[in-house]
């Protein structure tokens, strides 16, 4: 599953959405397991069906993404998208894109209650994985023009603005 998640970053979300597999401790899997093993112990799901679902989900994920250069053009346009940062407060305070808002619980509540669900929104994180989940979440709640910055702020700093500092997260 580890290699599968590397190849298909949205695979955990896709498997959970369709099969309720991999999203919590009761349906989780080990990175050392194969997709066939996970399918076998989860109601003997057909592996071919799961693969077809993962491929379709990857296409959907690609459609939810915006390249850094395209975001730059959108931000320079007369009506730029709202820019939401889904990283931690520490990451946000260390480095962020101009005009970005940190996605906090109060902001999310306000966004849901008073936000225009047709307004263009771009979410970003460090490398584009968490923001893809956030974009899917917002789309699932009726927001119509949501994109995730492909490659995250890291891609922005390498492809658009090298003045935006790059960083590496170190986990214990």
Please explain how this structure is put together:
This protein folds into two domains: 2-63, no CATH class; 65-159, Rhodanese-like domain (Oxidized Rhodanese, domain 1, 3-Layer(aba) Sandwich). 48% of the residues lie in helices and 9% in strands. It has helices spanning 2-7, 11-19, 35-40, 47-63, 68-76, 89-94, 105-114, 130-140, 152-159; strands at 65-66, 82-85, 101-102, 121-124, 146-149. The radius of gyration is 17 Å and the shape is globular.
For this entry, give a set of tags.
alpha/beta; 2 domains; five-stranded parallel sheet; 172 residues; 48% helix; globular; Oxidized Rhodanese, domain 1; 5 strands; 9 helices
At CATH level 3, the topology of the largest domain is: Oxidized Rhodanese, domain 1
End-to-end Cα distance? 22 Å
Q: Could you tell me the mean pLDDT?
A: 92
Radius of gyration: 17 Å
Going by CATH, the architecture of the largest domain would be 3-Layer(aba) Sandwich
* CATH superfamily (homologous) name of the largest domain: Rhodanese-like domain
Q: Poorly predicted ranges (pLDDT <50, ≥5 residues)?
A: none
What is the beta-strand fraction?
5-15%
Number of helices: 9
In order across it, which strands form the biggest sheet?
A: 1-5-4-2-3
Strand and helix map with partners:
Blueprint: H1 2-7, H2 11-19, H3 35-40, H4 47-63, E1 65-66, H5 68-76, E2 82-85, H6 89-94, E3 101-102, H7 105-114, E4 121-124, H8 130-140, E5 146-149, H9 152-159
Parallel strand pairs: 1-5, 2-3, 2-4, 4-5
Helix pairs in contact: 2-4
């Amino acid at each position: 599953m580890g290699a599968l998640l590397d190849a298909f970053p949205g695979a955990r979300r896709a498997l959970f959405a369709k099969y309720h597999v991999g999203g919590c401790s009761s349906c989780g899997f080990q990175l050392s397991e194969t997709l066939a093993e996970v399918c076998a112990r989860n109601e003997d799901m057909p592996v071919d069906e799961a693969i077809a679902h993962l491929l379709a989900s990857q296409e959907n994920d690609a459609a939810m993404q915006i390249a850094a250069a395209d975001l730059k053009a959108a931000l320079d346009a007369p009506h730029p998208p709202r820019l939401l940062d889904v990283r931690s407060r520490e990451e946000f305070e260390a480095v962020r894109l101009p005009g970005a808002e940190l996605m906090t619980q109060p902001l999310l509540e306000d966004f849901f209650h008073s936000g225009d669900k047709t307004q263009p929104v771009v979410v970003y994180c460090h490398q584009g994985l968490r923001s893809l989940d956030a974009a899917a979440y917002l789309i699932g709640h009726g927001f119509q023009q949501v994109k995730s910055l492909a490659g995250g702020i890291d891609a922005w700093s390498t492809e658009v603005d090298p003045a935006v500092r790059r960083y590496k997260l170190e986990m214990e």
